[in-house]
Amino acid sequence: MADIPDLSGRGGTLSMSSSLIHGLKSRDGDAWTRMVDLYFPLVYDWCRRGGLPADEIRDVIQDVFRAVASGVDRFRADRPDDTFRGWLKGITRHKVQDFWRRSPAEGRPAGGTDAQQQLLAVAIHEPLDSSESDASDRAQLVSRALNLISVEFETVTWQAFWRTTVDAEVPADVATDLNVTVNAVYKAKSRIIRRLREVLGDLSE
Predict the structure, then answer these.
(1) Does any domain span residue 8?
(2) Which of 75, 147, 159, 196 lies 20 to 30 Å (CA to CA) from residue 102?
């Protein structure tokens, strides 16, 4: 898949839309389904980066989303860098740490307690907090959102958006190839970007 571009025109951090947060706090079933559909692959990846055995990841993910359900009322976005994604990542980190703390000794890294703690810190903190992994998280989230909303649009509309936005083709060339007007291409791009922002929320510093 081609690289996902910055759709905000400004760069920055993805945050979940306030309407979806409100839905989660209101215990709206559709909001919950939408949140899980969007974030499950990312939480799975965080657990994998935390070194969890493959057959344990889904159980830990269930613990993560149970914690979200019980704690979402306490989520606040009082500062610009308070994002749902960051809050969810913190919950995942704690659940990964809980898993390793309760794991039997034979399942832990060899080398004594100090070595175990050092390896645990590397496995959990560096991959989840590095700027490189943060950029990867954002790209994965945008890609997931695009996959989810793609079924909402006609093929020509989607191709006009994808080819001009992701593949960076010239709108006039795309319009000719798709047998539509250039204005239709711009409208298709605008519609899908607007829908993507509704799903993901604002892109801010």
Answers:
(1) no
(2) 75
